Amino acid sequence: MKTILLTLTLVVTSFILNAQSAAEVKTDGTSLTVTVTLRGSGGHILVSLHNEASFMKKPLEAASLEIKDGKAIATFNNLAPGEYGVVVLHDKNDNKQMDFEPTGMPKEAFGISNNVMLMGPPQWSDAKFEVSNTPTEIEVRL
Which DSSP symbol is given to 120? Predict the structure, then answer.
């Protein structure tokens, strides 16, 4: 349980320290558009982009997004083709960290690319997907 808490806390801290605008436009490489759909409202959606070496550590890029009509959309530009993974957190109370129940279970929704149901910390093998030379779009459901 402590491992789960530590892992999730590190992910959220990475979001905060490395958040940047998803609207930033770059000119080379391909793009990845991440659409996050959720039932809840309020707060922000934190999205981080990783490769295998950075997964559950410092993200390659991150964004803090407003929720509009149950969705939030992030676009990451200038990506080289390869394998990537996305981690998403619904920061309902905008405190820039994942909140936990006294039992250690997360209070706020989180997810990873490929929409795998998690029973413990996210794993690279579950989250990875391929980005090619053409723009890629994925959806993460919370």
Answer: S
- Find tokens 């808490």 and name the residue: 5
CB 32 within 8 A of CB 84: yes
Question: Which pLDDT belongs to residue 42?
Answer: 87
Residue with tokens 């964004």: 63
Q: Determine the pLDDT at residue 96.
A: 80
Domains and CATH numbers, the chain: 2-141 (2.60.40.10)
CA–CA distances in Å: residue 94 to residues 12, 64, 76, 98, 110: 12, 10, 22, 10, 14
Distances (CA, A) of 7 to 56, 57, 125: 7, 9, 16
- Token reading at 74: 């992030």
Cβ within 8 Å of residue 22, ≥6 positions away: 47, 63, 65, 73, 74, 75, 76
Low-confidence ranges of the chain (pLDDT < 70): 1-28
Q: Cα–Cα–Cα angle for 82, 35, 23, nearest 5°?
A: 80
25 CB neighbour count, 10 Å cutoff:
9
